[in-house]
Amino acid sequence: MKSGKLTYFILAMLAPLFLASCSEEDNTVEEFPDWENANNAYFTSIFNYATGVTDGSWKVIKNFSLDDDIEATAENSIVVEVLEAGTGSGCPMYTDSVLVNYRGRLIPSTSYADGYVFDQTYEGDYNPATAKPAKLAVGGLVDGFTTALQYMHIGDRWRVYIPYQLGYGTVDNGSIPAYSTLVFDIALCAYYRPGTPINTRVAKPGVWITE
């Protein structure tokens, strides 16, 4: 199933949850009468779809902090759609810093067909030549983002679906409501590991690994 067909399928399934309703208190319009259930249903659909894909274009990855013997579930895992596969030989570690381009969105809604964008390092379609990557500490992010980075190689561009349990949880965070599934398009440009051997190369202070 292609990505566009998958999106249509999910939206069709969630249509009853996407219907706008009016608040009895102030007559304002709520796009999601039940935001928590809408997000749970959306992520569960993505998770179930990804678990059935075997060609490597989709991945299910458990939270980095979990032991190998713990089963991957929709509550403790992220789902990855591989948009572009990189050729880098190593992956960032929890203690590394990274240079990444990203766009963070909420789930689709009646007002935002592609999901409300709450943060990004580029405008319009992704163009690595004009995007301005952000420097981030791998261990300083929400668990879902941290997990994805530790499995990425230089040149990878992934669409990462993060359940609220591995995102901002049950509290609001700025423009991101509680119980929000986060959808990040992430491109790993470089990572920084001063003084640590990586295969046959050594990352020296002030040098970013870009391959």
Which key features would you list for this structure?
single chain, 211 residues, alpha+beta, 7-stranded antiparallel sheet, two-stranded antiparallel sheet, globular
Describe this structure in words.
- With 211 residues, the chain is α+β, with helices and mostly antiparallel strands.
- The protein contains 3 helices and 11 strands.
- Strands 3, 4, 5, 6, 7, 8 and 9 form a 7-stranded antiparallel β-sheet that branches. The protein has a two-stranded antiparallel sheet with strand order 1-2. A two-stranded antiparallel sheet has the order 10-11.
- A hairpin with a 6-residue loop joins strand 1 and strand 2 (29-30).
- Helix 1 (3-18) packs antiparallel against helix 2.
- It is globular.
- The two termini are 32 Å apart.
- The relative contact order is 0.17.
> How many DSSP helices?
3
Computed CA radius of gyration, to the nearest angstrom: 18 Å
Largest sheet: 7 strands, antiparallel
Assembly classification: single chain
Helix and strand pattern? HEEHEEEEEHEEEE
Strand content: 25-35%
Topology:
Layout: H1 3-18, E1 21-22, E2 29-30, H2 35-51, E3 58-62, E4 77-84, E5 97-105, E6 117-120, E7 134-137, H3 143-149, E8 157-162, E9 182-192, E10 196-198, E11 201-203
Antiparallel strand pairs: 1-2, 3-4, 4-8, 5-6, 5-7, 5-9, 8-9, 10-11
Helix pairs in contact: 1-2
Structure at a glance:
The protein has 211 residues and is of the alpha+beta class. The chain contains three helices and eleven strands; from the N terminus they run αββαβββββαββββ.
